């Protein structure tokens, strides 16, 4: 009987070990925020770089080929908001910026902030630093960028609007102070909780983020 009991114990031990080894290793990291990711300078440059110019077509007499003229309404909007304080933008102007930005090169950076705060979280500083290097790279330097702040759904509309504006300002201040980017090249706007990244989880950390959009390449436009 004792021998049989030992044999049964050995079998159960083997089964237990087998089950443990068959569990996904990711289960050990369930407490981690799997959505948070520090991006690289190259990734930001690739996302924000203007579309390459189309090569000239040879052998066809279809007249001179030129780049399409900038949209007059977009240019007027951009000129009207450059140099403005974040708080001064009206709700109409914010929506106009969002409408224009959706067709521009952009990247949604998961630059997170401390809860109820405009302080950049320590784990997101590498992403902000990569952003600073990217915006001063030869491929992007001279463009005008929208820096849009967002919050999660906790709290009221007015509070979140103010918080999102302060978060956008926080990123702009960091880029101006640490990377000497011209303040007029960074248009800051806040959207509060109106444009959640993950509507299914309105309180999730990923909603406390910053989106960067390349609105206009001044170097190209001035030629």
From TrEMBL:
Gene3D superfamilies: OmpA-like domain (3.30.1330.60). It is found in: Cell outer membrane. Coiled coil: none annotated. Residues 100-218 form the OmpA-like domain. It comes from Bradyrhizobium agreste. Keywords: Cell outer membrane, Membrane, Signal. Residues 78-97 are annotated as: Disordered. It holds the Pfam family OmpA. The keyword Signal applies. InterPro entries: Bact_OuterMem_StrucFunc (IPR050330), OMP_bac (IPR006664), OmpA-like (IPR006665), OMPA-like_CS (IPR006690), OmpA-like_sf (IPR036737). Residues 1-30 form the signal peptide. The keyword Cell inner membrane does not apply. This is OmpA family protein. Residues 82-91 have a biased composition (Low complexity).
